[in-house]
Amino acid sequence: MADDRLEQLERRVAELESLVRQLVVRAVAGAPAVRDRPTREPPPSASPASNAQSTSPAPPRVVVLPKIEVLPTPPDRVIDWEQWIGQRGLLGVGVLALLATGGFFLNYAIQHGWIPPAVRATGAIAAGAALAVWGDRLVRRGMLRYGAAIIGGGGGLVYLGIWAAAGPYALLGREVGVLLLAVTSGVVVALAVRHEVEALGVWALVGAYLAPIFLAGPEPEPAKFLAYMAVIGTSWLLLASRVNWRVTFDVALVGFFLLPASLIPDGLNSTIGVNYGVLGGVLALLATEPKRSTSWPEARLAALVMVWTVLLAVSEASTLRWTALYGGFLVTAIVWWQQLRTTPVAGVADNRMSVEIIVYLTPLLLVALAAFSPPSALVPWGGAVPLALAVLYLGSGWVPRTMHLVAMGLALLALAVSGQWDGAVVAAGWAIVAAIAGASGRWAHRPGASEVSVIIASFAFLQLFSVAEALRSANDPAFTGNWSLAWYVCLAGLTLTAFSWTPRPTPAVEDNVSVALWSLAAATLLVGGSLELARIFDWATFPATAALLLYWIAFAVILVLGASRLQPAMRALAVRIALLLVSAAYVLLFFILSGARPAGDRAFSGVWSLGWNACCIGGVLAARWWPADERLPSNLRFGRAALWWMAGGCLLAGGSIELHRAFTSELAGDLAISTFWLVYAGALVTAGFRLDHKTVRSAGLGVAALAALKIVLYDLSALEALYRVGSFFVLALITLAVAYAYNKKAKASKASAT
User: Fold this and answer.
1) Residue 457 is part of which domain span?
2) Does some domain include residue 57?
3) Residues contacting 278, CB < 8 A, separation 6+
4) E strands in 517-568
5) pLDDT tens across 68-100, in order?
6) What's the rounded Cα separation, in Å, for the pair 741 and 461?
7) Is the dihedral of CA 530, 532, 537, 538 positive or negative?
8) Is the alpha carbon torsion for 166, 167, 170, 174 positive or negative?
């Protein structure tokens, strides 16, 4: 690493020398030759005016220097693989071969008993120390990379010697051997810091981490192992942070957590294990604070992932769970303290999300820990932890208007509701929190509160009509039960949230969010009212279906009536929902309610007749109050005509059904239907003439043609003679009247033309 910096410095010095050489050459080549100028006689004396003019200072001369061409910086040199292999590759092979030589020698000496064990071990240590001293001298002479490798090889030989003395030879206790190995790693890392060679520091770190593994005893000792790892890991983390060694810090952090998790996983599920994990997480968070120069996001994320894995994996007694909860509080408090001076969500609007946004989710992990692995005493108070965090975040972010703190505080407040209650109460609580968040954004001008209100309102709607509805007991009464009260609260809360949505500079965004919020409020009223009406009349029964039909028609008419007072986007949404509701009501009337109609339901005055009348009147009112075409998008201007057609069709079909039901005699019923169709056709034609509307007249002619076909094809063969006479008589009257009206209109048109 130092050699690379030296090479870059040499390249820059060469560039400067080249530039200076060019400047010197151009200066010498461009200098004018010095020539002797002939002396001239002084000019004769002039007048005082001319003397004054001549004594005035001459204007300065502008000297244009020759253009100097600055050569561009030459590109980075192509890697010379021969040099690289000879300088670095062979160096690494040589160091590894040297270590292998020492290891094989010790092994061979052990097998044949050539040298006493003490001599073997001390010899390896002495040879390693000599290599380290030689490597240090090489570094001082300028051979940084070569000397550092020699130092690493010497440290490795010392490591082997100590391992042999404390392991196979048993000349030292294992604890003493581990301590000496750690000291050896410390000496190597001291040389690495002295010569600024991070690779040598990583080498020493790996040796220190592997020391207790190489000298492991017959029985595992988790407490001693964790204590050793805590000392080594803490030392290296602090050192790497101090000298700004990013790779060393990452390696130290990963080894700090993964080695105990791999070797003694059960040891982490203890008090000392939990405290060990919290220690590593706290050190990493403090060392990589966003405001520091060592703000390494990968280390922060890795530390949080690993420490929360340790905490969430706790599955023992309640005392240990309290320890895990305290540790989680400490980690969350540090994250909160560091985020008081950061803005992790500042670039969300511009799609520039900071990596710190993931760290921002830390309190949610603490809530998960308290929810899924709580101490026994905390079980009845599931909302206590998120409530305490909500107070912390809202209290610290409210006055300075810190967006991410206010947003997280409101989200934690919603989690406190869900942690303490369930079912319909959660839906009502979320609706209240959404209303508070919306009001905070609109009138208190707290950033981020309005956006959070949209999310919480959506969850309140889903909770009410999914989980809360599924958990609703059969004895809960309609319109007065617990679910109904939650429905009222949700309706009010979502309405207030929609009303308090803060306008945005971009109209499209404002319209979309506002439409979504008002849609939630309208859907809450529509779906909730439908469920309550159906619950009153025992769901899929004839009265329940009729009640739903009446409710939908009334809802549609109110939407159309109020559409003219809404904004364009809301107006389009309102009339679209109204059109769908009217269509659904007609389908419900003729395809579901008609089939479920009891035999005792009377014609023209029964329950079905009430629904039919409501559909006819509702369709007419909706068509009458439909907004003007210029106030609607082009794809909704068909709505008025569609409503008129549906209302007319409803009247024709419903009247036919009622007439057929009213007459006990089938013959009389058929005659009445034919007469009704003809009268209906005549009424349409008359209305078409008065309104001067060709479409209405055409519809009347169509109904008349349908009636004529029925009389000719059906009545002529099915009715008795007297009924047949009546059918044709009515047909004659109506057709003649319609023809007279058309002839009269033609005569009037001809007279006006002349």
Assistant:
1) 421-531
2) no
3) 307, 310, 311, 327, 330, 331
4) none
5) 444 444 444 544 443 444 444 444 555 555 556
6) 58
7) positive
8) positive
